[in-house]
Write a structure and sequence with these properties.
heterodimer; A: 2% strand; B: mainly alpha; two-stranded antiparallel sheet; 14 helices
Chain lengths: 332, 330
């Protein structure tokens, strides 16, 4: 009897929602395993710790930015200027390296430049009330423009040898610094989003900004700081990327915003805000990384991979909206 | 009537004054800007931006966004270029037909996904953007189609001089006029506004919002396809990265011209002004003698400031989403 009572007490929709989410991540997990198997079958070079380690480099930097991007999209905003932010940070570090600053300074400068860029986006969106997609179309051009204005068509590459560690170093055996950092950050973001008050509030803001404000959540302040965090993380990714390439050109990371947003959406984060999980984003990043690496092992050119990611994105969202329509969608 | 029009649209008035001031100051300080050759080329550039922005406006009006317009133009441009290289004797009519049909078909792909599967337009067009670009590479094998492989008719149509300006500029003007008449006097045009302004009320009034979104995407696609041919013919080359990133300028032109990203507000006049504004700046910078590496910075600054200023006039509720989602219950 108490069982019946408790089941009638529990509200229906949240449970269905969780089930779908769970299914979604299971699906992604299976896709990752399937692709892993497929790659192993198709290429004899794939199943080797060092190959796998190499494979991780082509998506880790983007995946790191996808974590705060997930927070931002869950909170109901978007930032398409991240690729340009990465370029701006890289140029700032390159110029500082040229002026003779040591590596710790470069790291601080890279993150700080990204932080400032993120604050600027946050200011436009929360203070001046520019819709985020429009504001960041502007800053996408602006940040990239600053990068070109500072460097022209030159290359900055006077980095100290110890700067190479971030993008090329290994912690133990074939486990690279980048992957370690990504794992730690993913854990931190997962705890912050799913186990803390801040995370619950981010979900609330995305699901219903008006109700959140009325219940006392400083919505605009939250959004501002997520923008700032995303900027700082883009700065971090810029350090990794610049260190891996060993040089800075103003065209660095062009178009990354699309792959990063694709990872987030593929990971089950709703573009309308209010739902998503870090686990999904991590799995989606792994999946995209494995698919693109598998295809490149089979000698497909980079632009053709775009067809695969684009189709994946649409197909996956189509499936999830088909699943979602059976129950939860009614409410919105 | 004119007075009431300007009073109703302060953004349009401000923008026209700004454009006039910009034109005057540039032409007084740098007379070479007024060189007919330069003006013609500036107008041609702007015409491309203008027509694609008009197409984008249809989509924005219905609370959607089309990020795939530039990729659509690149793909359609490549197809007509390859067609022309294979059948140089076929003349210009099939080329125009292919670009329109193929452009609207690609637009219909976007539109159907948004309408039938209810996927947010930003996700759909983010996906098709990559797919279309990848397809350009596949059908061309990564090779360029140069002007040497294109027929004279194919290349010269856009350069046909007519009353002082090129045919390409006239095409931009014509598309703008047609769009203006369509939005103002046709039922579908009026319904586009209704669907974007209040989808729920529109649905109760018997308007199929999803179908209209699909129509808007097809219009945007058709214009993008046609611009693809114009682009390839104007610059005499088709390759994978044609118009890469141009979709952002197209959206910027719309937003600067007062089209609301949350749907239902905006007009052709504003979009033309927005496109003119960006076009003039882009073409004035080299004349003024600013290094090409600073041009992106200035465009970015202009877009950011314009967008920030404009958003003040279209403040909606606090509870906005990235794009307003359509909520159609019945």
């Amino acid at each position: 009897m108490s069982k019946a009572l408790s089941s009638s007490y529990t509200p229906g929709p949240p449970i269905a929602w969780k089930k779908i989410l769970l299914k979604w991540e299971t699906l992604l997990g299976l896709a990752v395993i399937a692709d892993f198997g497929l790659n192993t079958y198709l290429s004899p070079y794939f199943l080797n710790p060092w190959t796998l380690s190499d494979a991780s480099f082509n998506f880790t930097e983007q995946a790191i930015v996808a974590l705060p991007m997930a927070l931002l999209i869950i909170a109901g905003e978007i930032d398409i200027s991240v690729g340009s932010t990465i370029a701006l940070c890289s140029v700032a570090m390159g110029l500082a390296a040229k002026a003779g600053f040591a590596t710790p300074w470069l790291v601080g400068l890279g993150i700080f430049t990204g932080f400032l860029a993120g604050c600027f986006n946050g200011f436009l969106v929360t203070r001046l009330r520019v819709p985020s997609i429009v504001a960041t179309i502007g800053t996408l051009t602006l940040f990239r423009g600053i990068a070109y204005a500072l460097v022209g068509n030159g290359v900055l590459k006077s980095y100290q040898p110890d700067f190479a560690y971030f993008g090329q170093g290994y912690v133990i055996g074939p486990v690279s610094f980048e992957v370690t950092l990504f794992a730690l950050l993913a854990l931190a973001f997962a705890v912050a989003l799913h186990k803390s008050v801040i995370g619950r509030r981010i979900f609330a803001i995305g699901a219903n900004p008006v109700a959140s404000r009325l219940s006392g959540i400083p919505v605009e302040r939250y959004k501002f700081w997520i923008f700032a965090l995303l900027g700082a993380t883009a700065g971090l990714a810029s350090i990794l990327l610049t260190s891996r390439l060993g040089s800075t050109r103003p065209s660095i990371a062009t178009g990354w915003e699309l792959s990063i947003i694709t990872m987030v959406i593929l990971g089950g984060v709703s573009i309308n805000g209010g739902q998503g999980s870090i686990l999904g984003v991590v799995l989606a990043a792994l999946f995209i990384g494995l698919v693109t690496f598998g295809l490149s092992l089979l000698n497909f050119p980079g632009i053709v991979l775009g067809i695969v990611t684009g189709t994946l994105l649409i197909g996956v969202v189509a499936i999830s909206s088909a699943l979602g329509q059976s129950g939860r969608r009614r409410r919105s | 009537m004119l007075k009431s029009f300007f009073l109703r649209a302060p953004a349009v008035t401000g923008l026209s004054l700004l454009i006039i001031a910009l034109l005057l100051s540039v032409s007084i300080a740098f007379p070479p800007f007024l060189d007919p050759v330069n003006l013609k080329s500036a107008f041609d550039d702007t015409a491309l931006l203008m027509m694609m922005a008009v197409g984008e406006m249809f989509v924005l009006l219905t609370r959607s966004v089309d990020l795939s317009v530039a990729a659509n133009a690149a793909l359609t441009g490549m197809v007509v270029a390859l067609f022309n290289a294979k059948h140089p004797g076929a003349g210009i009519l099939p080329v125009l037909l292919i670009s329109l049909v193929m452009g609207s078909a690609l637009g219909a792909v976007n539109g159907l996904l948004v309408w039938k599967l209810r996927i947010p337009s930003i996700v759909v067009t983010l996906g098709t953007l990559s797919v279309f670009r990848g397809l350009v590479y596949i059908i061309s094998g990564g090779a360029w189609v140069n002007s040497g492989q294109m027929s004279h008719a194919f290349l010269n149509l856009v350069r046909l001089p007519l009353l002082g300006i090129n045919l390409l500029s006239w095409a931009g003007v014509l598309i703008a006029i047609l769009a203006f008449l369509f939005l103002r006097y046709s039922l579908t045009g009026r319904n586009l506004y209704a669907a974007g302004n209040n989808p729920e009320a529109a649905a109760y009034a018997g308007i199929d919002v999803g179908r209209l979104q699909c129509v808007a995407f097809m219009l945007s696609g058709a214009i993008a396809g046609l611009s693809g041919y114009f682009w390839v013919a104007r610059f005499g080359v088709a390759y994978t990265d044609v118009a890469s990133g141009f979709e952002l300028q197209v959206i910027a032109a719309c937003v600067i011209g007062g089209v609301s990203i949350s749907g239902g507000a905006g007009g052709v006049v504003g979009v033309i002004l927005g496109a003119l504004f960006l076009g003039i700046i882009k073409n004035a910078l080299p004349v003024v003698g600013i290094s090409p590496f600073f041009q992106l910075l200035i465009s970015g600054l202009v877009i950011t400031v314009a967008v920030a200023l404009n958003s003040g006039t279209q403040r909606k509720t606090h509870g906005r989403h990235i794009l307003e989602s359509k909520k159609v219950t019945p």
